[in-house]
Specification:
heterotrimer, A alpha/beta, B mainly alpha, C mainly alpha, A: alpha/beta, 6-stranded mixed sheet, 4-stranded antiparallel sheet, B: mainly alpha, about 75% helix
């Protein structure tokens, strides 16, 4: 835990979000906020609606009720493209990399919003198109250095082991220089060393670039260690919200995890 | 008004034959997830084999079962040579394989039996039904009605087969989930061989009917290609869809040709079903009867 | 030992981005271009030009167009020939009705018209995908051909729908020999292939591939699906349109809409599948394969006929061709789904290690 980290104003506010698919209610009346520069964890048993929550934040799902306010802009529904343009980036639980491309190309796609040249300029590959390509390549290489994946630059992502794929997905998210990073189980399926690496990367991103991080995670040790505040979901409802210590001792949270009937 | 009914009924009846071809598609898609572009080539092949056998001197009573045997052998060969090696490939790869298969089958059919146009006589005259003509003044061909009857029998038989027999149940299981079906011990290879054979039999019926109507020639493959819009409208995995939408396509294309055609110089039959299907796709991508596709992220 | 990267260090991203980063590759390609531009015109016979090289190049261009749409952007299309037809007939009308228009501009104009039509028929791709899209492109194929035959204005009211392409005249120089046509087509195709390669390795190419691989994720990182897909249709149709114009002017001469039938669409699709989906090289390899196979077949048949007295009738040959095409497609899909281009890549990798096995 890092008590010295300065958390700023509220940058993301979710109010009374309700989401259902057909008859299944995924989320019911969820409200919480996220402050700038903090690391906010969303935890809860399986099926609690955590991924759905992230999907609402960046506009992949549209809630039936409630509002999402990002940087003061009240929005009933986000749309993924606007979210990306506003500086929200994310990773997915089941890796959403472009399997047909190399690591380098995948990460370069993360920079697509920074590129202004038209396809004609790119077809001729002179002037602005060429400069942009080189400049963005340079930035992407910085991210590659940061995440220590230089050795697999040219490998098609389909061939990489799971842990490295997750790292590449993180790199792609970071390449867009986001102000808000949404991570969906970034450490799933990793061993202890890989988890330590991932924690280190997340903390570094937060400290060096001031990126606000919202992450879904199951490993309690990780959550307690790196997050500033925690939201707990169960059956689509919020049952806990506060610092890791507060949440750890909360009876409702413990019951939810132990599966007490309610 | 009578004329309208004539065109309508004529269209419906030719639609029945589209349904038959579409049925073959649906069977294979339901049971293996393969979109068999070669279905129309199979129809052509079946028709050509039948007339070829007739020319060689077989009687019609022998030729039909003989052709059926040939279709079954073809189905088995396809399963062994094309499908088995491509078992876990993405759908698009299998689709392209069936495109290759189309050309192979067409070439084979014409090489073996020659490319001359031949007539096919099923003993049913393409004459108007007497009493309907005299009493209501409507011209409906006996042949078309007989074709519709055959199709109805076939569909009923298939529906019973799918829903009442053990094999039918196994086929539906395989269509749902290959892995799960394997896990409960359903022999995938045999199932596929059965399905493609049934599809071959359906192709045979369709081939005989179409061939009798239009003559057995290469253009038959284009006619059979019209089954694709039928599938779009009806959904790729729905038997009722194939039937109903076959009728819709048949009727609408004839009506369009007769009533809209003169304004634009005629010949719209060639593309009308496709454009109709296209319009439909924009409103309801999964077709009238198909399953809604949900994509999870 | 000849094909080693050792010692070739890249000291700038610019160098790393080069199309042919390995020096031996660059030399190889320059060599091929030298042969194509200099040696071939001096040595090839008119038959080789008109029967092999010209169709090979033109269809490579069409295959390139289809590759952009199907290979890079993942939108399956069976309407390639229709877009070629649009390009051909549009160019014809530009030359016919705009007096003094430079021919290259007319060809480009044909390409632009084809691009617009492509966008129109590409609109459904925003809602439908996969085989459904393939059937939608069939609608384009049948409708466009019908339209071109029915609307008399397009064919200048010729009774049979046949047009005669005007002789090619650029800057006062008449391109009427096979050699001249070949060089013209070679130049156009080389430039457009370069453009395609540039697009493929730039942002636009990556956006297309992202849309192909996982469009939901592409949206999440900010790629707008509609512009990306429609652009793919537009660029692809432009390439096919120019190919169609060249097909009409430098190959067929007298053009009827039937020359652009479904059969041709399939032929180009075969080139893309066999050559390698999603690669520039694959378009050329596939086109070579499909163009040369019939030639090889007829040479073999003639040999068998004259040397062994084995006479095989014409009909058998054309059907054998169909069977071989179908068979090869299946063969490639089973053995190497990524086509000849991948086989070439594997060969190069083995060559890099040669004479060592691994």
């Amino acid at each position: 835990m890092n008590p010295q980290r300065r958390t700023g104003e509220v940058v993301l506010q979710l109010e009374r979000i309700s989401l259902s698919f057909g008859g299944v209610k995924a989320l019911t009346g969820i409200s919480f906020d996220v402050r700038e520069h903090e690391i906010r964890a969303i935890i809860g048993p399986n099926g609690a609606g955590k991924s759905s929550m992230l999907n609402v934040i960046n506009g992949v799902y549209h809630p039936q009720e409630g509002t999402v306010t990002f940087r003061g802009e009240v929005r009933r529904e986000m749309n993924p493209h606007r979210a990306a343009a506003q500086g929200i980036a994310r990773t997915f639980q089941n890796i959403a990399l472009f399997k047909g491309m190399s690591v380098l190309d995948n990460i370069m796609t993360g920079r697509n919003l920074k590129m202004r040249s038209t396809f004609l300029e790119q077809a001729i590959h002179v002037g602005r198109a060429r400069r942009e390509e080189l400049e963005n390549r340079r930035r992407v290489e910085e991210v590659i250095d940061f995440l220590e994946i230089q050795h697999i630059r040219r490998t098609p992502v389909g061939r990489l082991p799971y842990g490295l794929q997750k790292r590449v997905e993180l790199a792609r998210a970071l390449a867009s220089e986001p102000s808000l990073l949404l991570l969906d189980e970034p450490m799933a399926g990793m061993n202890v060393e890989e988890k330590q690496d991932m924690c280190r990367f997340i903390l570094d991103v937060n400290e060096q670039y001031g990126t606000t991080v919202v992450l879904i995670e199951h490993d309690m040790g990780v959550v307690m260690d790196i997050s500033d505040r925690v939201v707990v979901l169960d059956y689509g409802r919020k049952i806990g919200d506060g610092s890791p210590d507060d949440v750890r001792g909360d009876k409702a949270v413990i019951d939810a995890y132990l599966g007490v009937a309610h | 008004m009578q004329f309208f009914f004539e065109v309508l009924i004529g269209g419906l009846l030719s639609g029945v034959m589209y349904s038959l071809v579409a049925l073959g598609f649906v069977l294979i898609y339901k049971a293996s997830g393969v979109f068999n572009f070669a279905q129309s080539a199979m129809v052509f092949f079946a028709a050509l084999t039948y007339v070829g056998l007739l020319e060689v001197g077989l009687s019609p009573w022998l030729a039909v079962p003989a052709t059926l045997v040939v279709m079954i052998v073809l189905a088995l060969a396809i399963e062994r040579v094309v499908l088995r090696p491509l078992v876990n490939q993405p759908q698009i790869t299998l689709f392209m394989a069936t495109i290759g298969l189309t050309f192979f089958i067409e070439g084979l059919a014409q090489m073996v039996w020659g490319a001359n146009v031949r007539g096919l006589d099923l003993g049913l005259a393409d004459e108007p039904i007497g009493w309907l003509n005299e009493n209501a003044g409507i011209n409906v061909s006996k042949f078309d009605v007989a074709a519709a009857a055959v199709a109805a029998i076939l569909v009923t038989a298939l529906a019973l087969f799918f829903n009442r027999t053990r094999i039918g149940r196994a086929l539906r299981a395989v269509a749902d989930d290959h892995q799960a079906a394997l896990a409960v011990g359903i022999p995938l290879k045999q199932i596929w061989a059965i399905v493609w054979s049934v599809a071959g039999a359906v192709a045979l019926v369709a081939g005989l009917l179409w061939g009798a109507r239009n003559g057995v020639q290469y253009a038959l493959t284009f006619v059979a290609l019209k089954a694709l819009p039928v599938l779009i409208l009806g959904g790729f995995d729905s038997v009722p869809g194939a039937i109903v939408c076959g009728l819709i396509v048949g009727a609408s294309e004839k009506l369009a040709e007769v009533y809209l055609g003169p304004y634009v110089g005629g010949g719209i039959e060639g593309w009308f079903p496709y454009v109709l299907a296209l319009g439909f796709l924009l409103i309801r991508p999964e077709g009238l009867f198909g399953e809604k596709i949900i994509r999870r992220i | 030992m000849f094909y080693r990267e050792a010692g070739q260090f890249k000291t700038s991203y610019d160098a790393d981005l080069a199309i042919f980063p390995i020096r031996q590759d660059l030399i190889g390609v320059l060599g091929i271009l030298a042969v194509a531009f200099v040696v071939v015109p001096l040595t090839a016979t008119p038959y080789v030009f008109t029967g092999i090289l010209i169709p090979f190049l033109i269809l490579s261009l069409a295959a390139l167009g289809l590759n952009i749409l199907t290979g890079y952007a993942g939108q399956l299309s069976l309407g390639t020939a229709a877009f070629m037809a649009v390009g051909a007939f549009a160019s014809y009308n530009f030359v016919l009705r705009v007096p003094g228009i430079p021919m290259l501009l007319a060809f480009a104009g044909g390409g632009v018209v084809a691009a617009l039509v492509g966008v129109l028929f590409g609109l459904p791709s925003l809602r439908i995908r996969g085989f459904y899209l393939a059937v939608a492109t069939l609608a384009a194929q049948f409708f466009i051909l019908w339209f071109l035959t029915k609307v008399g204005w397009i064919t200048n009211y010729s009774s049979s729908g046949v047009i005669t392409a005007q002789p090619i005249q650029i800057l006062g120089y008449a391109f009427n020999t096979p050699q001249a046509k070949y060089l013209l087509i070679l130049s156009v195709v080389a430039l457009m292939a370069l453009a395609a390669k540039n697009m493929a390795r730039s942002n636009v190419g990556r956006s297309w591939m992202a849309v192909r691989d996982m469009d939901v994720a592409a949206e999440v990182i900010g790629i707008r699906l509609m512009p990306a897909k429609l652009l793919a249709f537009a660029v692809s149709s432009f390439y096919c349109g120019v190919a169609g114009a060249l097909f009409a002017y430098a190959y067929l001469g007298t053009v009827e809409p039937e020359a652009f039938s479904l059969d041709l669409s399939f032929r180009v699709l075969f080139m893309v599948i066999i050559g390698g989906v999603g690669t520039v090289l694959g378009s050329f390899l596939g086109s070579a394969f499909v163009t040369l196979l019939p030639v090889l077949l007829s040479v073999t048949v003639r040999y068998l006929d004259s040397n062994l007295g084995l006479h095989i009738p014409e009909s058998v040959i054309s059907n054998l061709e169909l069977m071989l095409f179908g068979g090869f497609i299946i063969f490639f899909l089973i053995v190497e789904p990524h086509g000849l281009a991948r086989l070439w890549q594997i060969a190069k990798e083995k060559l890099r290690l040669w004479p060592f096995p691994h």
